[in-house]
Amino acid sequence: MQEYPIIRDVVIILLVSVPIVYILNKFKIPSIAGFLLAGVLIGPFGFRLITELEHIEILAEIGVVLLLFTIGLEISLQRLIQMKRMLIIAGGLQVGLTILITGLFFYLIGIPLNQSIFFGMLLSLSSTAIVLKLLDEKKEAEAPHGRIAVGMLIFQDIAIVPMILFVPLLGIADEVRIEMIGLQIIVALFAVTVIVILARYFIPKIIYFMDRLRIREVFTIGTFLLILGTAYLTESMGLSFALGAFIAGLMISESEYSHQVFADIIPLKDAFISVFFVSIGLLLNVQLMLDVPVEIISLIIGIVIIKCGIVVAVIRFMKFPMRTALITGLSLAQIGEFSFVLASVGLVNNVLTTEYYHAFLASSIFTMMLTPFLMHVAPVLATKVSRMQIASVATRSDTTDKKLKHHVIVVGYGLNGQNITRVLKETGIPYFIIELNPEMVNRLIGKKENVIFGDVTRRETLELAHIESARCIVFAISDPGATAMGLRLANRINPNIFTIVRTRDISNIEELKRLGANVVIPEEFETSLQIFRKVLENYHIPVNVIMQQMAILRSESYQMMVKEGSGISSLTHIDEILAAGITEKYYVEEDNPHIGQTLSELNLRARTDATIIAIVRNGNTITSPSPSEKITAHDTYVLVGDHKSVDKAIQVLNGDE
Q1: From CA 366, how far away is CA 344, in angstroms rounded?
Q2: CB neighbours (10 Å) of residue 183?
Q3: Cα dist. 308→130, 326, 364, 474, 567 in Å?
């Protein structure tokens, strides 16, 4: 019987990975760490369940191709323009400084220049998959540190493309020749330009053709063919598979089919990328860690400190508070998944020795495993460091009225903050804005707004906002940690202040109430109430009953949604209301098909069992209208009947029967 070792290896990978990922997930450790650990256990340096890596590496390469494709698919040109400041300035400085500082360090300790530059490139990348997953779980993707981290990660994901192009040049010789680098970059840029033009012209047309066939299998297989075909084209031109996949994703992201393509490809990407992380774990030399544990631990600590320090310096340079800078720095202190791709390219091109490669793998894998812990302790550590600062980080607009009292303090000038201040301005209620985005603060100063640039977790910031004389403070930010600390501090300075807090997660409500919040508005809860209201309106429940039910839900707070099975007794009356008769109004538009007909000709009661009991015409009410009454534009009819009959009557009146 013919043997298929690749199937056996995949079975082993899945058999070991599933329970490990499940167990680690219980401790809120990302799945990536589970795949890496599974690879370590079953690899040639573990229990030796898998010793031949050739077939696994092929699957891993497909995983990398799909990962870069989905990144290109998610990074539209419009999004890049919107994030240009975080992307170009923050991301560019972080990558550039990391390569410069770490490269210089390695060069000074005697490592050749080409290897030193390559080490800097490896350390400049962080894990997009891990950080975005943790930010999403913590509901902090829209917080200041979340937005900055996302901007830096996108820049890193884009930077991997020229880095991959650059690696073969570093492997040419011990000394890097500038003229050869320039020539190779020009050739590479020309090749990329040709591929982009071809992809931009042909890919949308091909996808449009496949969509018109209306065959799901053809669309999915054809999309997969486009990805691998573009990747193969770039590889045949001397570039890399991953670059072609990225270009294909970027081109499709601008089309109306991007969401469908993403939905079709994401399951394949998840499956293959998991094999990629397992393949990385397979390469981890456990014996090396046992032989030189001090060196590996020192390398891990050094990576975390250097990466965190550079990110903090960049964010502080952009005038963000220390708290935001430190949380972002600790979030990005790990080595990224693309560093493994880059390391593999470096190994092939003789830029990285086997010894360095295994040391890099060991330290990188552990920095990834440390990330959940670092992101957990980051807010606490950031708060302590922030309190140690002597100088205040807050500055106030010159337009601020220092005698203002009984005002509202609005923390955060996002969409919610803008809506709040717009209403306050229209009603003449004075307000202050506390905002962390320097660009936004400058724009608000230009509009003569009362704005404060600072961190709400700092006492100095709140004092500059005259919190001691404020009447109300509204927390409209997406940072749960900053909200909690700011809320505690606000109540400590002004115990009589009325506090309103916005939160994304209903699980935070009890803690915020305990900290002194007078009103907590959970977005999930309010969204569910609006859905609840629309459903009842569709069933013609009277408005006063709907408002009563919503008031009951709010008065009994969120217990029904937080604690499973804790129902609300008042909701049991809904079925009685649905069974009873209802009253509904119908307005006759000018284009109604029944205009000019009499009520007897319409014969609504016989057709629907609903009755017109009154007509409102020109401000006058006609009760018990006669059958000879004609239907006139701008009439309002009052209908009575059960839900089914009223619904049918409205269809008849609309001419939709």
Answers
A1: 18
A2: 12
A3: 16, 7, 15, 32, 48
Each residue's pLDDT tens digit, 521-532:
887 777 777 787
At position 621, the amino acid (one-letter code) is T
Residues 638, 651: Cα–Cα separation, whole Å:
15
Q: Which fold would CATH assign to domain 5-43+63-384?
A: Na+/H+ antiporter like fold (1.20.1530)
Write out the CATH class of domain 581-654: alpha beta
pLDDT at position 1 is 46
Distance (Å) of CA 327 to CA 155, 365, 489: 19, 21, 20
Q: Both ends of the chain: CA-CA distance in Å?
A: 67
Neighbours of 14 (CB within 10 A): 14
Rounded distance between C-alpha atoms, residue 610 and residue 581, angstroms: 10
| 393 confidence band (pLDDT: 50, 70, 90) | very low
Report the topology of domain 395-517: Rossmann fold (3.40.50)
- Judged by DSSP in three states, 176 sits in coil
The per-residue pLDDT for range 46-88, each reduced to its tens digit, is: 888 887 777 777 777 777 777 778 777 766 656 666 667 778 8
Q: Minimal CA–CA distance to 60: which of 45, 43, 73?
A: 43
In CATH terms, are 5-43+63-384 and 395-517 the same topology? no
Domain boundaries, the chain: 5-43+63-384, 395-517, 525-578, 581-654
**Buried b or exposed e, range 518-549, using 16+ CB within 10 angstroms:** eebbbeebeebeeeebeebeeebbeeeebeeb
Digit-coded pLDDT (tens) for 482-523: 888 899 999 999 999 999 998 877 777 888 888 889 988 887
- The verdict on pTM exceeding 0.70 is no
* Residues 6 or more apart in contact with residue 265 via CB below 8 angstroms: 66, 69, 70, 73, 223, 224, 227
